[in-house]
Amino acid sequence: MKNPIKYSLATEIWPIFILLMTLGLSYWSYLRLPAQVITHWNFYGQANGWSSREFHVIFFPAILMAMYALFNLMPKFDPHRERYQEFTGVYQKIRNLILLTLFIVFVAATLVNLGYALNIGVIVTSTIGLMMIILGNYFDQLKRNSFIGIRTPWTLLSDNVWDKTHHLGGRLFMLWGLGLIIAPWLTPPAAFAILLGGIVVIVIWLSVYSYLLYKQEKNNKNLVL
């Protein structure tokens, strides 16, 4: 089965560079890290989970390599694989952005465990928030596929529903990303509402919106018939 996306040195240099930097940081930090490292923080940067340094230096690189492989292989098995040629550039930018975000989180977690006084809560939420803003800006350029984007049962059945849902979804994700950036500076209830309430509202809103669009489209077709 042929992969619909063409890869070259130009398209792969940045993700490979990120992976090499991740592996290099793992190698460099291994003997410098304490035997037990913090692997989880709450929303405000307070440690609430620990593991061995071996887990720390293996887990993040493994996640990044798995994500890289997944992004490169999934288009090949997608029933809508012919559509990837319409948004290959955006698809690769999104892949690189997600890898870069994971790398930044790994760097921040490693530096904190090495004793650097960083506010990891602010770093992580701000990084993810910025990623959401950039992703939302790309949503209008995504075409119907089964791997990346807002995949409800109704967006997958119609290009029109897909396009309109992603237009709205892009704006909602950008707004949520902005909320994530400011959330660490708010009161705990407000921050929690943005973190979890925001994504719940987005999922429900877009699911209902795509359903109503599909029903409207189907009714219009029946009227024409």
Compile the SSE list and pairings.
Layout: H1 9-29, E1 36-41, E2 47-52, H2 53-77, H3 88-113, H4 120-138, H5 159-182, H6 188-224
Helix pairs in contact: 1-2, 1-3, 2-3, 3-4, 4-5, 5-6
Supply database-style keywords.
225 residues; mainly alpha; two-stranded antiparallel ribbon; 2 strands
Order of helices and strands: HEEHHHHH
Number of helices: 6
Unreliable runs, pLDDT <50, ≥5 residues? none
How many structural domains in the coordinates? Answer: 1
Average of the residue pLDDT scores: 92
Q: How many beta-strand runs? A: 2
What distance lies between the first and last C-alpha atoms, to the nearest angstrom? 38 Å
Net shape: flat
Question: Care to describe what's here?
Answer:
This protein has one domain. The protein has a two-stranded antiparallel sheet with strand order 1-2. The radius of gyration is 20 Å and the shape is flat. Strand 1 and strand 2 (47-52) form a beta hairpin. The protein is 68% helix and 5% strand. It has six helices and two strands, in the order H-E-E-H-H-H-H-H. The mean pLDDT is 92. With 225 residues, the protein is mainly α. The longest helix is centred in the last third of the chain and has 37 residues, at 188-224.
Task: Give a concise summary.
With 225 residues, the protein is mainly alpha-helical. 68% of the residues lie in helices and 5% in strands. The longest helix is centred in the last third of the chain and has 37 residues, at 188-224.
